[in-house]
Structures are given as structure tokens and as C-alpha cells.
Specification:
The chain is α/β, with parallel strands linked by helices. It has 17 helices and nine strands.
Length: 399
């Protein structure tokens, strides 16, 4: 369940909403629910009553910051709330700095909690657009010190959160804070997740057309014939998260504005969320993990466009199970490059070696793992770190 809570200024005018996932437990958490929650957050954030032209603050995990779902969002509309690293601070702060810097370079705003003012997080502080001060854990004397320090060492705007009484509001506002969040202003509101199911056949057809770079007319025709696809795409394209300043009512406009690369990534994620009776939801989860793992490993040596093909191989590697047909027949429904088909059918080429390695990570087959890693000139450390990133992205995409 998605929830949102207002962020207001001193005049009690809403300037933004924080969106977060109320379902924190791992029980029943699958790739399908991840995809639904991502698209729901983006789509519902677009309704005028919910956000309008206001900023969207989105709770993140560090693993989700490298997810392809961020490619579907207009960075200018979004504030990514970056969590602290806990006991892992230190070397990890430096290691994650390039990811955060790249997000800010792309136009995302970044928000941190008060721990970013600690010396261990000094490399992150120049990236902070917002710093949130939690009144439930900070004593008044601590607040005064942090507010003073932030004013001298940062350009970030300060937000007082967990403001629950008039006294707390008076205390922080008298110290120069202009943005507030908490029960004193508004309680979180739940937003029901709504994503219409689309048929697997329609999704596969759409992916096929996108891979062939088909005409807008042909792609539009597929959308018109599947209510689920049509609904979900129009919700996304008209969301505040997508960043357009006018409503799109034409499928043709939606396709042209989204572009083929984003349209493919969107359709591929939808495919992993779709199910036929008898197909376990874990299949889609595994496909997402494989795709992301292979993409991350390919980026170690290849340009991003070539790494996209690695993602394609991984996310289609269980297409035979998802569609309940032999892989050769499933690929007959798609238009894929020869190197993708060679990898999926015969584990040939660089992409085939990557897929073999991804499968070995799942089966814990040490001999196959070592052989594939040696062929690809990848260290166990590189592979294990990428695997952890891929697992976390698939499991915690919207935490």
C-alpha cells in the first residue's frame, strides 16, 4: 500500500508530498508487487488533487537507486530520500558517492536525514538539497546545534519532521526552519494501488514491435486492443512523475513522448509482473534479478547500449516458463538480435556466458561459476556485489 504525507511551509501551504510503502514486511513480496507499487506511485502522484505541481519525496533504498524504473521519471519533479548506511558508513560513503552524484547530475533532488551532518557523511553533504530533522529523536539542544551547523556548511533546505504539537512547531520555526512535516499538519493518507492487468500476449507483441522499431501506428494499434496496457501507459504518461505540463489523451502522443527505450523497459517490467495460471510469481522475480545482474556485470566492460542487451537476455531467460512454451517458440514471437537469440537458445557468445554465470549464482554451482567468471574476466567480488545489488533492487524496488 502506498502512503503519502504532506510537507508544508510556514504558511501551511503544501509544497510537496512524501510517498512511501506501508507494506514493509517481506512476506509475499515479489517482483510483481514491486512493479505494481512503482507504477502506482508514479501514476497516483500525477493526479492534481494529490500532487499537482508539487515535489514528490520518495523513500528509497540504496539498492533501488540504480534501478531502471528511475528512467521513467522526470528528475525535476522528484526528491529521492537517501537513507543512512548505519554501521556500514565510512568506506561505503565514498563507494556510493558516484551513484548519488550521477543522480543529482541527472536532475534529481536529494534529501537526507540529520546523519548527513556527521563527519562520516561529509562527502555527501554538498549533494543535499534537503535535510530532514526528526523531532522524535533529536533533543532541542541537538536541534539548535544541527541547524546552526547546516546553515554554515550546507546549501540545503531544512525540513522539521515528526512535528506533532504547536510547541514543537514554534520551537523549530523560531530557529529559521521553513518546511515542516508531521501529525500537527496532516496524517498520512493511504492510496489504493491500481494497475490493470494486461495480457501477456499483448505485452510480448508490444515488446516485439519496439525491438523492431516499428511504426507508431503499429504500436498504437496494440495499445488500443488491450485495456490494461492502454490504462497503465496513460496513467504513467500523465503522471506528475513523468514531468509533462499538459494532459496526454492520444496513444500516439504517449508513444512518441515516452520513446522506444523507455517503452521497452516499461513493457519488460510489466511482463515480469504478469502471470498465467500455474506460473509462480517467483519466476518473474528471478527474471528481473537475472536481467539486472547481467546488466550490471556488462557495464563493467561494455557501453550502456550493449549492456541493455544483457538486460534483455536476462529478463527473457525464463520466457519459456512465463509463456508455457519452448524457448524457441517463445523467441519466435519476438524480434531479438541474433546475439540475444544465441545466448538464450545455446548460451553462446558474451551474453551466453553472462547468462550461464547468472544461472550459476542461483544454483550455487561453484565449478560453473568459476569457469564462467574466468571466461568473462570478472572477480568473485565484482560478481557477488552485483548479485546483491540485483537481488536488493528486485526485492526492495519501492521500499
Amino acid at each position: 500500500m502506498i502512503a503519502r504525507q504532506a510537507i508544508v511551509n510556514a504558511q501551511n501551504v503544501v509544497v510537496g508530498y512524501e510517498l512511501f510503502n506501508r507494506s514493509r514486511s517481506g512476506a509475499g513480496h515479489t517482483a510483481a508487487t514491486d512493479v505494481i507499487l512503482v507504477f502506482t506511485a508514479l501514476s497516483h502522484a500525477g493526479t492534481e488533487e494529490l500532487v499537482g505541481k508539487k515535489l514528490i519525496f520518495v523513500n528509497c533504498t540504496h539498492e533501488s537507486l540504480t534501478g531502471g524504473h528511475l528512467e521513467l521519471v522526470d528528475p525535476d519533479k522528484v526528491v529521492l530520500e537517501i537513507p543512512p548506511l548505519g554501521h556500514a558508513a565510512g568506506a561505503e560513503v565514498v563507494a556510493r558517492l558516484p551513484i548519488l552524484a550521477a543522480l543529482r547530475e541527472r536532475g534529481f533532488h536529494l534529501a537526507f536525514n540529520h546523519t548527513v551532518l556527521e563527519s562520516a557523511y561529509a562527502p555527501w553533504l554538498p549533494l543535499a538539497d534537503y535535510i530532514k530533522l526528526d523531532l522524535s529523536v533529536l533533543a532541542p539542544d541537538q536541534l539548535a546545534v544541527l541547524i546552526s551547523y547546516a546553515g554554515r556548511h550546507s546549501q540545503a533546505e531544512l525540513i522539521a519532521e515528526k512535528v506533532e504539537t504547536a510547541q514543537q512547531y514554534d520551537m523549530v520555526s523560531s530557529q529559521g526552519i521553513d518546511l515542516f512535516q508531521g501529525y500537527w499538519f496532516a496524517r498520512p493518507a493511504l492510496i489504493e494501488a491500481k494497475l490493470l492487468p494486461a495480457s501477456q500476449a499483448s505485452i510480448v507483441h508490444l515488446i516485439n514491435l519496439v525491438r523492431k522499431q516499428a511504426s507508431t501506428d503499429d504500436i498504437e494499434e496494440v495499445l488500443k486492443k488491450d485495456a490494461g496496457l492502454a490504462f497503465n501507459l496513460m496513467r504513467l504518461i500523465n503522471s506528475s512523475g513523468f514531468g509533462l505540463n499538459r494532459e496526454i489523451t492520444s496513444f500516439r502522443q504517449a508513444v512518441m513522448l515516452m520513446g522506444l527505450k523507455k517503452l521497452f523497459r516499461w513493457a519488460a517490467l510489466l511482463l515480469t509482473a504478469s502471470r498465467t495460471s500455474g506460473t509462480p510469481s517467483s519466476v518473474g522475480h528471478t527474471a528481473v534479478v537475472r536481467g539486472r545482474l547481467m546488466e550490471l556485470l556488462a557495464l563493467e566492460t561494455l557501453p550502456s547500449d550493449d549492456a541493455d542487451l544483457a538486460f534483455v537476455v536476462g529478463i527473457f531467460s525464463l520466457l519459456d516458463v512465463m509463456l508455457n512454451m519452448p524457448m524457441a517458440s517463445a523467441l519466435g514471437l519476438l524480434s531479438v538480435p541474433d546475439e540475444v537469440a544465441d545466448a538464450l537458445l545455446r548460451r553462446e557468445g558474451f551474453l551466453g556466458d553472462l547468462l550461464t554465470l547468472a544461472e550459476a549464482c542461483e544454483s550455487s554451482d561453484d565449478s560453473v561459476f568459476d569457469r564462467a567468471a574466468g571466461t568473462l574476466h570478472l572477480s568473485s567480488q565484482q560478481i557477488n556485489f552485483a548479485h546483491l545489488q540485483a537481488l536488493a533492487w528486485a526485492d526492495q524496488l519501492t521500499d
